[in-house]
Amino acid sequence: MKIASQVGINSRTADQGSNQSIKSLGCWQRKCGEMKVGIFMRVAVSYLRNWSQLKTVQKQGCLSCFANRYKQYSEIQPYRSLSTWQALLDSERKQWQMSSVRYKDLAAVLKKRLDKIHLTSPGRSEEEMITHGDYVYFEEDNCVYRFQKTIGEESLEVVFSPEDAGLHDSLVQRIRVSPQQTYLAVALKNFDCEDSKCYVVNLQRTPELVHAISNIFSFEWVTDHILCHTRLENLRCHSVYLTDFSNRGTTKLVYMEQDPRFFVDLYLTRDRRFLTINSNSKTTSEVWVVDCNCPFQSPFLVQQRVAGITYYVEHSNGYLYILITHGEPAEYKLMKAPVNSSINQWKPIHHVKPHSRLVDMEIIKDHCVMFLKQQNELHMEVISLFSELLYHSLKLPEWACAVQPAVHLERGSDLLQFYLESPICRPITFAYSVLENTLSIEANHAIGKNETCKVFRLKAKSKAPFLDVLKTMMDTSLPLTIEEEEEWGSPACNMEHYRAIESYCPYQNIRPQSYPSVLITAYENDQRVPLSGLLRYVKKLRMAAEQYHQSSGLPDSKKPNILLNVHPGGSHCDSLPWEESLQKVSMHLSFLHKELNLNECKLSRDNP
User: Measuring CA to CA, which residue among 53, 65, 42, 40 is closest to residue 10?
Assistant: First the structure.
């Protein structure tokens, strides 16, 4: 808003007003405290630029407005000293130590039960293995093994162990084997941070560690000797590199994203013909393609980014198959395109129906398989890429809430394996045969009569919540703020965005009222959700709950327990060792049982 232009004053008058404004601004700063650069300074300058022409009442209104806004702004600033922040953290840890005693006995019982379920659940399944020719590769206990199918597990050998790299507290995140099995690439993540490191093993004769790449995010083998990989820096991924192991591991830059809102990832098409460089923001995408037969040629652009349009690329039988939101209707549509063609040459072959949401897509044996949600129910549609018609459509089991295709599909196979999951059922592996047009349950995942409500496995999910949205999005120095402005807005420079976020930000909306008991789990080294915001949130929530409790006259037994459990180290991705993960989940379940007054008679037995 430019008040100077609205009242029609010339630049000379504006300059004179600005000189007087400096003095007024100085008085205002002494009244409100030192003002930081940001939205309030910019708004102040726009008002004060014609300060001399404002009436006394208007000046008082400006000062009052700025004072109120600055008061709100100052409340969301970080703690002014490390000692204050550390004192609050120490206080919360002591509070948790005292309060957690109430839940420990039941947590121990729950831990035994979860461990027993884990041990009796199905072992390694085929979809967790990588098949290359006669060899099968898999990860177990943070080591990578392989064996020959024709010989069996008698030929089992360790091809990589973290100890080979001098590491102990780390987790295997990703495994990639080169096309001719000359090299193995393994990503290891430390438990206490989000940075990953890729280790390359030469598989010829005796497996030998030959190379390491730091700060890696995604990587794929485009040939038997060439590895393409992205680099993660300050939680941002903008660059793609190529490392040639036939030329002493030389590395060169392939692609660099200039827009800080975009994040770059790599994907190898199912037929391994092309590597796609996917540059995505929250609302827009752009895909570049590397020909695996000519990896040193510059990547070509599929379609230049257009604001608000997202698309994804697969390949089969010489054509690109593109999921895109371009045009009408606004839902995703599947389009067929010659390689390296303009959008005018793309041909639509299938539309996602209105009121359906696309969950995932796979291309297998000349067919496109789409997983959809319709009225919160999962469906599967199969489209023939030859006839370009709907080949098969079916509704998946009603209990299924989520679907997860197998990561490692065997090249050329007509079989698509995928998990169906539910909060109350163990993940079940299904297999769809394109040739036979049949859907079956894998034998080692058959469901027993009394197993539908058992817990199956513990998934590493971060519990650190995003509660202080306004303060976090005001701080553009944080790694993800700029990248997420398309989703949340820019409160640091847009008052409308500031007010919108303020209206729903959990921290800003804490009031004295009835609250349930709350347990928040956080990690001291979390780079995505600042711990300072969680500390402030818990403190403010506890004060509001206490104020309501005192005014309501309720007995102390009705007072909610508001707790914060801060794990030392750790990261947002919550990649804890198995035992620690088991203990954490057991404590969560014990907290729920106690606070919800659930029946603990059966759980208290050692052999339920």
Answer: 53
